[in-house]
Amino acid sequence: MSEALSSENISNNSSVEIVNKKRSQLAEVWRRLKKNKMAMIGLAILGVIVLLAIFADIIAPYDSVAIKQNLKDRLQGPSTAHIFGTDEYGRDMFARLIHGARVSLQVGILAVGISIVVGGTLGAIAGYYGGRLDNIIMRIMDVFLAVPSILLAIAIVSALGPNLLNLMFAISISSVPGYARIVRSSVISIRDQEFIEAAKAIGADDFRIISKHIIPNAFAPVIVQGTLGVAGAILSTAGLSFIGMGIQPPAPEWGAMLSGGRQYLRYAPHVTTIPGIAIVVTILALNLLGDGLRDALDPRLKS
Fold first, then answer.
1. Which of 163, 123, 158 is CA-nearest to residue 140?
2. Which domains does the chain have, with CATH numbers?
């Protein structure tokens, strides 16, 4: 009885030590990230954009403001009534901008999330088992990499139809090979280390080793690439919507807003410059945060 209690206490103490170690590692990463002023600026800008997107319906209702046409107020410049002016249909630019932020962030985050799950799984399997399975998976990834990602996304959207779900699917599929290669290279560098051999020695199965030991230790570069990938996904979303292959009117989306306002650029430049600035600022914020995370997660920069 006492031996059972003793082993249970040892197990509980080990679990507590693991949790405390993870917390201390996160605290250390956050401490190093806070030292990077540019990364914190990017995080602050991104936080404001996310909050505006979350509370867009409260700030400017979708049906009554964002997509409601009012032709007598069309192409008005910034004013107290419309702080960013109105578009070619008299719709409030600020309302459309924050609702467009919701669409762009939704597509960017979910598309990258799908890419990380699918690509990370394939990369982990290829890197852990190696051999013929590794060769098959990586050659398939090479086929996808041989096609420019934007062309692959256009082909998928053309085949399935332009809507939010298909756009998200197209961008995620085109990004899978990059994450598969990153995870594979990390797994190859980890799989022969001593703690993996110890896990095998105590009888842990392959699924547990990959999910509990390898992937958590290989996830740092994926986090950095994922942050930068969201920026790329937002840019791809805007590009596809600009050419009519993305979000369809009257739904607000930054690329579609750019496309709709380009013919009024000479006498109503705000219609295109404002969504253009929104794209630039969002991608810049994500890139600054990604660079900061890269430095904070790099163990060689702990000092």
1. 123
2. 54-301 (1.10.3720.10)
